[in-house]
Design goal:
3% of the residues lie in helices and 46% in strands. By secondary structure, the chain is mainly beta. The strands form 14 sheets. Strands 10, 12, 13, 15, 19, 20, 21, 23 and 24 form a 9-stranded antiparallel sheet that branches. It comes from Candidatus Promineifilum breve.
Length: 837
């Protein structure tokens, strides 16, 4: 019986653990299942229904066609309210699946001051009557949102009532809902074979019509949306033809594109329909401002840009184009997905390269459907095609050219979806690249792209003069080229390394090279004139520290411990920042939770070089450099492990909103050295394994008034399945490159030195007497005056006049023992004899 009780207890525990794991799995599912399981967003950014302004952009290079709309008509007021339901009095949903949380019944009412509806004889619900400046564009527009969880499987009755205070009109809409279907993938619409929109998709907002095999806006307005797909779709590509006929006037401008990983609108306050839209994977679209600027944007979860807008926009209104957008989850659960967007003229070969790509935001939906978006634009959409991007592999077929060669990096038999590939052409002596063939065209060299299909590549070369490299210097410094040659092969790789004089920093490239990569690798596709610019650096700020002490210099550094569980220590040659396990100390939308030390820093040009002696070996261990204006505006430079390997990474925080600016730079291991250079608004980030040979990680611009800088350790995890790992960031030094400490750590490889000086005649015994000592070690010093001398006292790192003193080692110590001639006028001995001097 005893063993039976033990067995039953064990089974109970195992069932409880299983329930816990199942609960964890269910929690993961709630990210994609809106059946009342996802709490509505509460972050203020998520509750802002407005469209953020386009930051940047350039004047649109083609004529903008404006659709002013029909002239307003003032008809006589109807004798009684009248209800028009746009998509018929019998509507079908769910036959493919459910693309969002809501079923939408749209239409227009005239002559009414009140509007309401009931579902299946349930309670009466009040409806808003347009316009509302958002989803209800025109006078009388309405949008009934029915949660799919409230619908019966089969026929449902929606009774719409409109009143004017004296009379009432009603309209019955039958909603047939086919529950339990899962939208197939791959999937394609076919407006030609079946012009009924609801046969292929669900209208979310606005009035649409199918004609001539395309889906068209009837009346342009705010966020005219059509959705299709499953809320459980994760990784896929959507491709669709689109013709933008005209733009309609709006203070918010216009935009046309697609949303992926959509779950539906949510409430930001009062009103129906709800107007929250920022819970999404990504919105990729072409955007125009009311002033005529244009750019491509990718906006992530929260509605903000996740990459700088691309203002190299070269498509015309009235011309058919292909739009393609892909979403690919990270290899490891919990990471934000990668979004890639491209466009090209309809009928032409699809380019291999993407126009713009970005990494999404943490907390974004893990899956979701597709939305076609026409914001204040008159648009025609062709048939949309969606295909999954699972474990498919791709190949690159290189066609060997005459008079040259083609190099593919990395050189592999097969490639996975989204893998970054560089293809470079190099001519023989006297031959230049004339053009790419196969999947590419033009003469850009090299071609860098994320592979998403099989590639064929060739090249043609033509005879011509060899390219030359002309280097010059502005300021105090030098620049070297490797290899150094008079004439280069067309397409040859050359590494340029700027070497500033002491007290100067590299300020960036000009001429035929821009940015601040140090070193920079160029391709000699033509003759290039390049200048390396150097400026004087501020040697006073920040202040170098090699942590060559047994205690942190709290007059310089401030320890910051936001979560309250981190610690630090100094062992005499290193600073150790200890980050405990199981709690996230991430630096992202929740703020800066890292364990760190910071020092005041002037708002000047500077270069910081740090040496770390710790390794990031577990998923989301992090260490690096912080530069701050305040808690809402700062820069994060780091190395971290994402579970697949070590990555170099940088992010900027503007008003508390983060964006990755350098990401997905894979490293062979944890580099010991990190370097951050600031010249005005230009920032560059590089790394090294030996402190001599540096590799550029990237550069970017960011405007910030610097007040602090320092080093940090951090971690992140998603317990209980992926808890945050413990990490100790070990910092050897933090240097201002214009004023380094030489020699670093005083060359005390084994510990600290104790130097004892003597003034006068006497000796000092030291116990223990060793070449070096460790932090906290106790040393006893005893002064022994010579005959006729007395001990006056200690000076330096100890004081007092006791013959014996104890010293606790806290660094390199310098001590002086001072002896003075004896002042006695006689001495006594036995038998007593007095000697008079």
């Amino acid at each position: 019986m005893k063993y039976l009780r033990i067995l039953l207890f064990t089974l109970t525990v195992l069932m409880a653990l299983s329930a816990t794991l199942l609960s964890s799995s269910a929690q993961a599912i709630t990210q994609v299942d809106p059946a009342g399981l996802i709490p509505p967003p509460t972050d203020p950014e998520m509750l802002d229904p407005d469209k953020p302004p386009l930051l940047g952009g350039a004047p649109y290079p083609f004529p903008i066609i404006i659709d002013e709309g029909a002239a307003p008509v003032s008809p006589e007021a109807p004798a009684a309210p009248a209800i028009t339901v746009w998509y018929g009095n019998t509507q079908n949903f769910g036959q493919w699946g459910t693309p969002q949380e809501w079923i939408n019944i749209l239409g227009n009412v005239t002559g009414a001051t009140t509007l309401s509806y009931t579902l299946n004889n349930g309670p009466e619900q009040t409806l808003s009557i347009g316009p509302d400046g958002k989803r209800l564009q025109n006078a009388g527009d309405f949008n009934i949102e029915l949660a799919y969880t409230e619908l019966n499987d089969g026929a449902n009755t929606v009774l719409i009532k409109a009143g004017d205070g004296a009379t009432q009109a009603t309209q019955v809409v039958t909603v047939n809902y086919d529950a339990g279907n899962e939208w197939p993938l791959p999937y394609s619409t076919n407006w030609t074979s079946q012009p009924n929109i609801q046969a292929w998709a669900q209208v979310v907002d606005g009035q649409w019509a199918v004609s001539g095999g395309t889906l068209n806006t009837v009346t342009p307005g705010y966020d005219r949306l059509v959705t299709f797909g499953s809320m459980n779709w994760t990784d896929y590509e959507v491709e669709v033809p689109v013709t933008i006929h005209s733009l309609s006037p709006s203070s918010q401008g216009s935009g046309v594109g697609m949303i992926v990983r959509w779950l539906g609108h949510y409430s930001t306050g009062d009103g129906q329909p709800v107007d929250g839209w920022r819970r999404l994977g990504a919105l990729a679209w072409a955007r125009w401002t009311s002033s005529g600027n244009a750019a491509f944007e990718i906006r992530g979860n929260g509605g903000q840009d996740i990459i700088e807008p691309d203002d190299d926009i070269v498509f015309e209104l009235g011309v058919p184009y292909m739009f393609k957008l892909s979403v690919q989850a990270s290899t490891f659960s919990g990471n934000a997905a990668t979004y890639r967007f491209k466009y090209w003229p309809a009928g032409e070969t699809e380019p291999a390269a993407w126009n713009i790509s970005a990494t999404g935001n943490p907390g974004e939906p893990a899956s979701g459907s597709v939305v076609l978006v026409a914001h204040h634009a008159n648009v025609s959409w062709g048939n949309a095609t969606v295909r999954p991007i699972g474990n498919t592999t791709y190949s690159i077929n290189v066609q060997p050219p005459a008079n040259g060669s083609i190099t593919v990096t990395p050189d592999k038999e097969t490639y996975t979806y989204g893998e970054t590939v560089t293809i470079r052409a190099q001519g023989l002596n006297g031959y230049n690249l004339a053009g790419w063939t196969g999947s590419f065209s033009g003469v850009n060299n090299p071609i860098v792209f994320d592979i998403t299909k099989d590639i064929t590549v060739g090249a043609t070369f033509a005879a011509g003069p060899p390219p030359k490299l002309n280097l010059s210097v502005n300021g105090q410094g030098e620049v070297s080229a490797a290899p150094q040659k008079n004439n280069y092969l067309n397409g040859e790789l050359v590494t340029l390394t700027p070497e500033p004089a002491l007290g100067f920093i590299f300020a960036g490239w000009s001429g035929d090279l821009s940015g601040a990569d140090n070193p920079a690798v160029i391709v000699m596709s033509s003759t290039k004139n390049i200048t390396a610019n150097f400026i004087s650096a501020n040697a006073d700020s920040p202040i170098s520290d090699d942590f060559n002490a047994c205690a942190l210099d709290t007059g310089l550094w401030t320890f910051v411990n936001p979560v309250g569980d981190g610690t630090y220590s100094v062992n005499g040659t290193q600073l150790l920042l200890n980050v405990p396990a199981n709690v996230s100390h991430n630096i992202w939308t929740e703020g800066n939770r890292s364990v760190r030390v910071m020092q005041p820093t002037q708002n000047v040009d500077f270069e910081i070089v740090t040496k770390f002696e710790s390794f990031v070996t577990q998923r989301y261990q992090m260490q690096g450099i912080l530069v701050e204006q305040d808690s809402q505006n700062f820069l994060r430079f780091e190395v971290h492990n994402d579970g697949a390997g070590v990555k170099l990474y940088a992010a900027r925080f503007l008003g508390g909103s983060p964006r990755a600016v350098i990401a997905d730079v894979s490293l062979a291991g944890t580099p010991a050295y990190l370097r951050v250079t600031r010249v005005g608004t230009l920032w560059s980030f590089s790394y090294s394994n030996d402190g001599e040979t540096w590799v550029a990680g990237g550069s970017f611009t960011f405007s910030m008034t610097v007040t602090k800088s320092g080093v940090f350790g951090a971690n992140h995890g998603t317990p209980p399945l992926r808890p945050a790992p413990a990490h100790t960031a070990i910092v050897d030094y933090f240097f201002n490159s214009a004023a380094p400490i030489v020699p670093e750590d005083g060359n005390t490889l084994e510990g600290f030195s104790l130097t004892v000086n003597k003034v006068g005649q006497g000796t000092v015994t030291i116990s223990p007497d060793k070449p070096t000592y460790t932090c906290g070690e106790m040393v006893t010093l005893t002064a022994v005056p010579a005959e006729g001398w007395s001990f006056l006292g200690w000076t330096g790192d100890i004081g007092g006049a006791n013959l014996t003193q104890q010293l606790t080692v806290s660094g390199n110590h310098n001590i002086t023992a001072t002896f003075t001639p004896g002042d006695a006028q006689y001495r006594i001995s036995l038998p007593l004899v007095i000697y008079i001097k």
